[in-house]
């Protein structure tokens, strides 16, 4: 079964990464975290990607401000890459465009919310893993059930 | 092997969808297209998703303006969903936020460029399909080779 | 007399909904609240709309982030729908465009302020209900009177 | 039965107004057009509103650039007001905020697309007019049918 | 000598107005404040403008959110109008466009900072009033002197 | 009587300046045009301002892109300065902020439309010149009359 | 004397690069162009930088859309890097933030206009090269002279 | 060896300037600070630039809001100018465009982060100063080492 490889551009992104790790655990998916900046240590970053690629993972890349890491990673591997950038408030959050505006042939998939990034990775892995897929379905059923109960609770008052 | 199911919100999106279909063909991936609006025909849209979900596809959803389709689709299936909205120029392209700003538990993955959406789908399918994965690698190698040749060509003048 | 049916996408929107309910009470208009996500429980959402539509209401829909609910609701009913999304600060409030940028044939009417949404609903109901219309006129007269008094108060100093 | 009163801020808005008139005709709704600027001829504008208000209409206001007309109109009548501003491309369409950012107690309802403004007006009138309501339902059914046929047409190839 | 007439759209703008009044006092210019909303009490607003216009003032208009007051005032008087809107942070301050985007023939002059609005009014009045003009020059000299002293202070360390 | 001194940052702004000159002629106001960049020839620019200031003019400054000229001019004269920048479409017209975002004590008054800049200058000059003031009133009356006729014309059909 | 090394991310940027080359020629500065994408061929890009760095150049990097190249280059060399991205109109030119929003320790210097990028490089080289510095001064004098002549030309009419 | 000359537009920018001074000290580069507004004291500002230019410095200019200082400085000297504006949050940080949108022939180089501005200045000076260049390389090596250690630290847990 594919695991998830999380690469973050700086140790400052560790809390963000751990939100993804926790959510992946909820889907019974193993993950491994790395710190590597595409700007500052591209050779080390390249080596991590090529080494991890052998294990057939889904990559999740985390880089704030100008996000070079997600495109760099995606272009160096045939595995899927989810970009989950911790976008701040500066310039109305315009950093998101550095994750979205990829040239032709570079295709990281962008998700804003770290829990949602884990869910998307789970759906990808679930395509070929029934246990994970069942966890995804259970998660989706639970949130549907929660909404129906919430509706009942405000209407029974 | 997973195929790709493309759902577009209007027949006006057919050209955009065909760009994805063509690129998927290049990766030797079958695809099937549907038209269904989450706003106007949600029950039909739901039925398409549930029927196609049985075949374990990667979904790609196409909806311009306010994109309800991608979140709707993602929340109704345990399969992965790539949102590839044809974002126009109005309001500085702010329609993209209707694809990105998903609530917790709804996780379409956003890609702007239709060829890149096909590449991302190929990477997902390639996780468990060597033939597709090889096509992805060949594509990536070719674009690397193209860049190296381009560099040579301007430098030999 | 028409009542107002408020549908919110999540229980987290309850405070926002209650501001509308309170303002409707001020216009002597009954309202009923429901929780239903167009993303997560579209069938339940559809059923609420079709059931409530029988009572000839004005709908007010409340959904933050990417607003699928308002367009979904509007397209499923011949009754008028007012979208009153609780737009946050992220991305300079660009979520508003998911309420505004509707395709042809989908026509929720957008109002930012929840009290104003109640006022607009009262004006609609007042078209055929003299009691409500009188309440609207009294409200408008009172705010005019307040401005004239405020002007007097700063000028008598 | 309520008619629709369209007030536009300048004769330059006449084409935009006529799109609304035509769509209202499709719903069998009469309309009447006026030109009056809240900036330049506020007394004339006020008189039009007060005179037309006697006939219990739905107002639709059309004003480009900084939209004073919609708020001015809404605050002077107990009838509902739909703002349908012809927003241009300058400043990324930021003119829309002059229609949306109303003070407390001023409640025009904003719709971008002129045909959709007509549809919304028809829904309001249809609350108490079965003929118009039937026209709305027929319109909605037709667009659903069109989507289903479009889906069929691309899938039978 | 011209005085300044300040019209604010709501009593909530009184602190903003007082900043202008205080700065005008510094230039030895009298001012008078009024509260009148162009949305809610246009007839009263009109009467204030026409009555005050007789005294040949410079108008300063203050209105937050969608600013109808500045254009309304400017179009009703042959005296100059300075718009000094208290622009908030919502939607990245896009309210400013409701002050700027005036139709042809409506010409309020926009200044963001209330003290600067007072300075601009002083410069206008100073064109024909030597006392005020001298105050403006003294103010400008003082801020130049302050900068030169500041430069000296950091350089003598 | 005050004339208007127009300073433009580049000869490329001459068409824009001429729109202002023509509109000033309509108000029977003389004007004189200069080319001087606050970036490139600040000493020449300073000398023009100090020389012209002796004649007690209203200044209108024209500078595209990053507008240094308007603030530079305003801070060097006790006469009023209207900034009328020819804002382009790049970056959603964000150049306007270089005209608006002035530090404390620098107070150019911003107007987008060149004809409106001329009108505002006429209103300023009209405060102490009855002929110009009469021209402003005639202009305003004419545009009111035009609107009333336009309203009549579409209603007599 | 330092030369300028221009690295562009794609052959599509060649016209943009040539504008810089031509302007550098005007300052009598040699330049050399390379094509290398930090996303797609980072190792080749790294090698170009390290090889060229030996010659002590000023680097100018050209990359549209999400600009990884400029930060990548800057972090791999102790030589100065000027980022001159060909920013398009999509999303109101928000691509510029991928050039500006650099993490701590990565310091490309951003210039929008390609001729200005050449001028900035010339100023850097001119710090230690009198011939280039003289060319810069001549260029600046010429543009000052041009402005003074332009001012004369419109004033002699 | 070139020193760095820092010009700030107001004493309020002193903390920002000191961040640059401290970082320059880390690269063993001397600096000198001046306060001078291009708006308010352009002649003094001009004199500072011309006097300091004799010492062959790199200039760093600091001006918030509408930044006239950087373009003014750049156009008055043949030495390189780095603009490091303290951009605030108002209007989504749109002040940055007053630093970026320079006319042809005016070429300040923009950097957002004050430490990065110091690093860029060090790289420029390092082109002809081995001691400074060595400091730059040591700084870059240290941040690479830090990243590698950070990666090791989270992976050894």
TrEMBL record, chains A, B, C, D, E, F, G, H:
GO terms for biological process: 'de novo' IMP biosynthetic process. The keyword Isomerase applies. Residues 2-147 form the PurE domain. Substrate binds at residues 10, 13, 40. InterPro entries: PurE_dom, PurE_prokaryotes. It comes from the Bacteria. It catalyses: 5-carboxyamino-1-(5-phospho-D-ribosyl)imidazole + H(+) = 5-amino-1-(5-phospho-D-ribosyl)imidazole-4-carboxylate. Pathway: Purine metabolism; IMP biosynthesis via de novo pathway; 5-amino-1-(5-phospho-D-ribosyl)imidazole-4-carboxylate from 5-amino-1-(5-phospho-D-ribosyl)imidazole (N5-CAIR route): step 2/2. Keywords: Isomerase, Purine biosynthesis. GO terms for molecular function: 5-(carboxyamino)imidazole ribonucleotide mutase activity. SMART domains: AIRC. Belongs to the AIR carboxylase family. Catalyzes the conversion of N5-carboxyaminoimidazole ribonucleotide (N5-CAIR) to 4-carboxy-5-aminoimidazole ribonucleotide (CAIR). This is N5-carboxyaminoimidazole ribonucleotide mutase.
């Amino acid at each position: 079964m594919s695991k998830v490889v999380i690469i973050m551009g700086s140790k400052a992104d560790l809390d963000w990464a751990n939100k993804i790790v926790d959510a992946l655990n909820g889907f019974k998916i193993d993950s491994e975290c790395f710190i590597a900046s595409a700007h500052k240590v591209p050779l080390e970053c390249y080596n991590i990607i090529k080494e991890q690629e052998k294990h057939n993972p889904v990559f999740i890349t985390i880089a704030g401000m100008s996000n070079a890491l997600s495109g760099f990673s995606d272009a160096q591997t045939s595995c899927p890459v989810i970009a989950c950038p911790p976008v701040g408030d500066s310039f109305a959050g315009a950093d998101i465009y550095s994750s979205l505006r990829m040239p032709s042939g570079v295709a990281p998939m962008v998700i804003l919310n770290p829990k949602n990034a884990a869910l998307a990775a789970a759906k990808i892995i679930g395509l070929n893993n029934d246990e994970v897929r069942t966890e995804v379905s259970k998660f989706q059923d639970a949130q549907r059930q929660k909404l129906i109960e919430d509706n009942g609770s405000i209407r029974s008052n």
